[in-house]
Design goal:
two-stranded antiparallel ribbon; about 10% helix; Glucose Oxidase, domain 1; 3 helices; alpha+beta; about 25% strand
Length: about 230
């Protein structure tokens, strides 16, 4: 039986492709996931007396890794953090914009956007860039420009998602897309995968993180429910 659910997430794993952070000396360091066994089943069995045995896991990670969302607090300290996002902001009717063929480091043309109303939608941009996950080319991604941002804001979009690691142009340290969308309380989802399965289909989009107070971003298990 075919599932009505489509997984849109990269796998969260120890040592996975990470996120880059500029250090005070100008160097860029990549930070990734560290996932390890905190207690083995054998250690657990020696501690417990009832015959049960469990393995437990410890994990450390930057919250902007794997498939994740940015809350407005990521850019603006007075705005909502991850815990402040309502479920109604994260479970939305969705639409995929097919942007395949957009060249590296270029902005997608605004005529790719559909003419329909986008009010209240999660608008997900499919560049096909998930195919380059874990490669050097993944950082050379296309992006959206100011004209599309204008349309998303004017149209009342609630979430903008991308199958790239950044909504903004690679190397643009002004982050105009993040700055403008987050200022309007529009959540951003990045590192999505598998959006091709949703083109032309009606679906509901889910990107729900743990309810983490003072978190700027958070990894999610993003998925779609076909309607």
């Amino acid at each position: 039986m075919t599932s009505r659910f489509i997984d849109l997430s990269h796998t969260f794993a120890d040592g996975m492709p990470g996120t880059s952070r500029m250090q005070p000396d100008g160097r860029w360091d990549e930070v990734t996931v560290s996932l390890k066994v905190a207690r083995t089943r054998e250690e657990s069995a020696r501690t417990l007396t009832g015959g049960a045995a469990f393995e437990s896991t410890d994990v450390t990670f930057p919250t902007a890794i794997a498939t994740y969302i940015d809350a407005p607090y990521c850019r603006y300290p007075q705005m909502r953090d991850i815990a402040g996002l309502a479920l109604d902001d994260l479970i939305l009717p969705g639409i995929v914009v097919d942007c395949r063929g957009t060249a590296n480091r270029t902005a997608v043309a605004i005529d790719r956007l559909p003419a329909q109303s986008l009010a209240g939608y999660a608008v997900l941009f499919r560049f096909g860039w998930d195919a380059h996950w874990g490669t050097a080319r993944y950082r050379e991604h296309p992006h959206i420009g100011a004209d599309i941002v204008d349309r998303l804001i004017a149209g009342g979009v609630k979430l903008a998602g991308f199958d790239t690691g950044n909504a903004d142009a690679a190397g643009d340290t002004a982050y105009p897309v993040h700055s403008r969308l987050l200022a309007r309380d529009i959540v951003i989802a990045e590192n999505l995968a598998g959006l091709g399965a949703l083109i032309g289909k009606a679906f509901r989009f889910f990107a729900v993180p743990i309810k983490a107070a003072r978190a700027t971003s958070m990894t999610v298990r993003a998925y779609a429910e076909l309607l």
